[in-house]
C-alpha cells in the first residue's frame, strides 16, 4: 500500500502516465482517422490522380491532333500501391494526432475543455494549419504539374504550417488585440511573401483534372481532420479517465 | 522552497512527454511526407499528392 502510493507520486511515473496518455490517444485517433482518410482518398482522389498520370506519361495528349475523351479506363485497385497508400495515410494522420494532442494537452493545462465535441474545432484548425494554409499558395499538386525546387517548397510548407498554427493559437487563446493582430500577420505573411514558383508552366494535364484534384484533396483532408480532432479529443478524455481510475483504485 | 521544487518537477514531468510526442509527430510527418529517398518517395507518392505535400 505504502509502496503503491510512493510509486504513483514519483515524478517519472507521472511523466510515463502523461506519455502513455498522449501516445495511446494519438495512435487510436490517428489510425481511425487515417484509415477513413485513406478510404476516402482511394475512392475520390485516386481515380483523378490515375487519370492525370495518363497525361503525365504521355499516353494521352491534351490539345493534341484530336480531342481526347474525358472518360478513360484508369484501371482498378492495385493492392500493393493502394495498400502502401493506406499504411502511409494512417502513419501521416498518427503524426498529425501526436502534434494535435500535445497542443490540446497544453490548452487543457491552461483551462480549456478538451473532448470529442471541442475536438471538432481543433480538427478544423488542424486542417487550416496543415492543409489549407500551405495549399492556399502551393495548391495540392496534380501529377505532372510544374513546380519549383522540392526542398525550397518543403521549407516554405513547414514555415507556413508553423506560422498558421501560431496564428490560430493566438486567435483562440490570445485574448487581446495585440495577439489577434499578430495572428492576422502570421496567417497572411507566407502568402504575401509568396511560395517558390516554377519558371514556366509545363503541366500536360487538362485544367479540369487539376482543379478537381485540388478540391478533392482539400475536401478529403477537411473530412479527415474533423474526424481526427474529434477522435483525438474523445480518446484524450477517455485515456485521462482510465488513468485516474487506476490511480484512485 | 519545497513547493517550488515540486512545481518545477511537476512541469518537467509534463514537458518531457509533451516534447517527446511533438518530436515523434514531426518525425513521422517528415518521413511520410517529405523525405526524398526514392524508395520512400515511391511508396508514399499517392499519399503525398493527395495530402498536399510538396512531392517531386
Describe the structure.
The complex is a heterodimer of chains A (249) and B (56). With 249 residues, chain A is mainly α. Chain A has seven helices and no strands. Chain A starts with a helix and ends with a helix. Residues 1-8 of chain A have low confidence and may be disordered. In chain A, α3 crosses α7 (207-248). Chain A has one domain (15-145, 203-248). Chain B has 56 residues and is an all-alpha fold. Chain B has one domain. Chain B is built from two helices and no strands. The radius of gyration of chain B is 19 Å and the shape is elongated. The A-B interface holds A 11-12, 14-16, 18-19, 22-23, 26, 41, 45-46, 49, 81-82, 84-85, 88-89, 91-92, 94-99, 101-102, 105-106, 109, 131, 134-135, 138, 140-143, 147, 150-151, 153-154, 157, 213, 217-218, 220-221 and B 9-10, 12-14, 16-18, 20-22, 24-29, 31-34, 36, 43-44, 46-47, 49-56.
Characterize this entry briefly.
The complex is a heterodimer of chains A (249) and B (56). Chain A is mainly α.
Please outline the helices and strands.
The complex is a heterodimer of chains A (249) and B (56).
Chain A: H1 2-9, H2 11-56, H3 79-109, H4 116-137, H5 150-173, H6 177-193, H7 207-248
Helix pairs in contact in A: 2-3, 2-7, 3-7, 4-5, 4-7, 5-6
Chain B: H1 2-33, H2 38-51
Amino acid at each position: 500500500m505504502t509502496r503503491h502510493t510512493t510509486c504513483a507520486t514519483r515524478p517519472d511515473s507521472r511523466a510515463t502516465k502523461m506519455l502513455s496518455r498522449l501516445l495511446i490517444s494519438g495512435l487510436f485517433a490517428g489510425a481511425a482517422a487515417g484509415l477513413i482518410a485513406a478510404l476516402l482518398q482511394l475512392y475520390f482522389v485516386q481515380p483523378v490522380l490515375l487519370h492525370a498520370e495518363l497525361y503525365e506519361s504521355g499516353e494521352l495528349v491534351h490539345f493534341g491532333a484530336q480531342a481526347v475523351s474525358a472518360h478513360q479506363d484508369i484501371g482498378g485497385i492495385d493492392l500493393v500501391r493502394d495498400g502502401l497508400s493506406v499504411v502511409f495515410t494512417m502513419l501521416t494522420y498518427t503524426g498529425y494526432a501526436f502534434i494535435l494532442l500535445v497542443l490540446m494537452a497544453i490548452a487543457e493545462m491552461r483551462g480549456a475543455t478538451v473532448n470529442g465535441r471541442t475536438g471538432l474545432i481543433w480538427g478544423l484548425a488542424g486542417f487550416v494549419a496543415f492543409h489549407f494554409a500551405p495549399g492556399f499558395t502551393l495548391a495540392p499538386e496534380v501529377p505532372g504539374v510544374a513546380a519549383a525546387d522540392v526542398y525550397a517548397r518543403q521549407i516554405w510548407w513547414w514555415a507556413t504550417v508553423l506560422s498558421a498554427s501560431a496564428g490560430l493559437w493566438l486567435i483562440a487563446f490570445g485574448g487581446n488585440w495585440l495577439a489577434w493582430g499578430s495572428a492576422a500577420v502570421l496567417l497572411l505573411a507566407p502568402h504575401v511573401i509568396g511560395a517558390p514558383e516554377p519558371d514556366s508552366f509545363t503541366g500536360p494535364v487538362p485544367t479540369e483534372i487539376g482543379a478537381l484534384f485540388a478540391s478533392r484533396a482539400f475536401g478529403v483532408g477537411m473530412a479527415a481532420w474533423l474526424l481526427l480532432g474529434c477522435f483525438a479529443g474523445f480518446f484524450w478524455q477517455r485515456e485521462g479517465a482510465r488513468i485516474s481510475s487506476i490511480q484512485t483504485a | 522552497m519545497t513547493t517550488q521544487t515540486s512545481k518545477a518537477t511537476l512541469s518537467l514531468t509534463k514537458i518531457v512527454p509533451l516534447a517527446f510526442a511533438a518530436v515523434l509527430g514531426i518525425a513521422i510527418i517528415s518521413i511520410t511526407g517529405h523525405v526524398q529517398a526514392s524508395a520512400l518517395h515511391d511508396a508514399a507518392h499517392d499519399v503525398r499528392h493527395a495530402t498536399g505535400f510538396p512531392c517531386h
